[in-house]
Amino acid sequence: MKKIYGPNLSKNAEGIPSLPVCNEGKGMRGKPIPVVAIFDVGKTNKKLFLFNEQYQIVFERSARFLETTDEDGDSCENLESLRLSVFDSLHEVFRKGEFEIKAINFTSYGASFVYIDKDGRPLTPLYNYLKEYPKKLLDSFYAQYGGKDTLALETSSPSLGSLNSGLQIYRIFKLKPVIYKEVKWALHLPQYLSYLISGQAYSDMTSIGCHTALWDFNQNNYHQWVLDTGIIQKMAPIVQGDQLFRATFPGSGYLVGSGLHDSSSALIPYLLNFHEPFVLISTGTWCISFNPFNEQPLTKEELHEDCLQYMTYTGKPVKASRLFAGYEHEEQVRRIANFFQVSTGKFKQIGLQWNIIEKYQALDISDELSAFSSIDLSHFNDYTEAYHVFMMHLVKAQIKATSLVLQNNGVQRIFVDGGFSRNIIYMTLLAQAFPNSEVFGASMAQATALGAALVIHEHWNTQAMPNDMIELRYFRAKQQTHI
């Protein structure tokens, strides 16, 4: 018996699990709790969250898989383990009987495609978006379609090789024509996960619009190269991110979302809670500044400064800038710790010392993120002083990156979430730099998963949407000091 890769109704001879049917029975607490199930699939951790109608997490399951390799020996996601984990996680929930799943949605990194055939069977590994792209193929692609700068500007996608997921399809099209011919649909990972449950193939704008080189932002349609190559025929119909669909098998009582790109999903709680112009700085390894209220087209200069466009679930462009600040923070903390012979844990306990800021404020602080890495640490009295000066450099670079998307569009609030939102030095210096905006450290439980739940609120939740999901901490600037 062949493997069934789409929804199936019973466990087959090879042990592939069936799609669970909604259990309406009473759980341990009496009447089952109505919930929405959200699969949040990151590069490292794969999580299932159940949110109740008050958007509290009432169940969580996490998994991590060893990577596998593709035919070239490059590391990549273990797609089979991921697929089985989706079914196993749902089976666990239904066995408990405590919860009544009303809807299921998905959010994940979106810069990778799953190519499925007419039976829903993946035809290739889930190629890593960091996989090296053939230079000769890339050069010929840009030469044929207007040049690197022109195409990047039209698609709001910096030239990023395999991270431009459209180029992944182009690679299959050119170098693996036999496989390409068998492709029924090319689905971004969030939509493939949705397909596993719904049996329906869709595309969504949050995945298409995020540095894929697929979408022409000026024409508001797929780029001409997608049409010329015929790759458009492999792209599933586009649906809006707040739409839900019934699964195509009997006995299911829940609805299925089409899935969202993780960065766009994390923005949703803010879009639904705040309607006055704001900027969100989402901090992590990358610090991304989102301005959903900047409607100016992306310029060549902004593109060269690592700006790009994301898409909201409604298909509206969001101008954003990127800074590799979280990574640089880890590197420099490690360097300072090694030099002064202290543990990196010490840096979490450092409070803001204005005397150090004032001592060094007359320095010509560079806005280049890497500038501090060339400074001799012997100039500093201790690790606390060195760390403060490093943060002055990092925030100066952040100011430059965020200012690229601010424009003069009346931004009244700047929200910072993620790791740096809890760094008092970062937050206070940022507030200092933007005295005309209120700067807040924002926190909420699992923002990316929460966004995927909130976007389908009206389809599954009988309660009003809570207005206290985001905890805000206001940071006031010290007017006399600047960096």
TrEMBL record:
Which CDD domains does the annotation name? Answer: ASKHA_NBD_FGGY_NaCK-like
* Protein keywords: Kinase, Transferase
Stated EC number for the protein is 2.7.1.51
Q: Which InterPro entries match?
A: ATPase_NBD (IPR043129), FGGY_C_2 (IPR049382), FGGY_N (IPR018484)
- Determine if Transferase is one of this entry's keywords: yes
Q: Which SUPFAM superfamilies match?
A: Actin-like ATPase domain
Transmembrane is among the record's keywords: no
Carbohydrate kinase FGGY C-terminal domain residues are 276-458
List, for all copies, the residue spans of the domain called Carbohydrate kinase FGGY N-terminal: 36-241
Coiled-coil-forming residues are none
Pfam families from the xrefs? FGGY_C_2, FGGY_N
User: What molecular functions are annotated in GO for this chain?
Assistant: L-fuculokinase activity
Its family remark reads: Belongs to the FGGY kinase family.
Q: What protein name is recorded for this chain?
A: L-fuculokinase
Q: Which organism is it from?
A: Sphingobacterium zeae
Lineage of this protein's species? Bacteria, Pseudomonadati, Bacteroidota, Sphingobacteriia, Sphingobacteriales
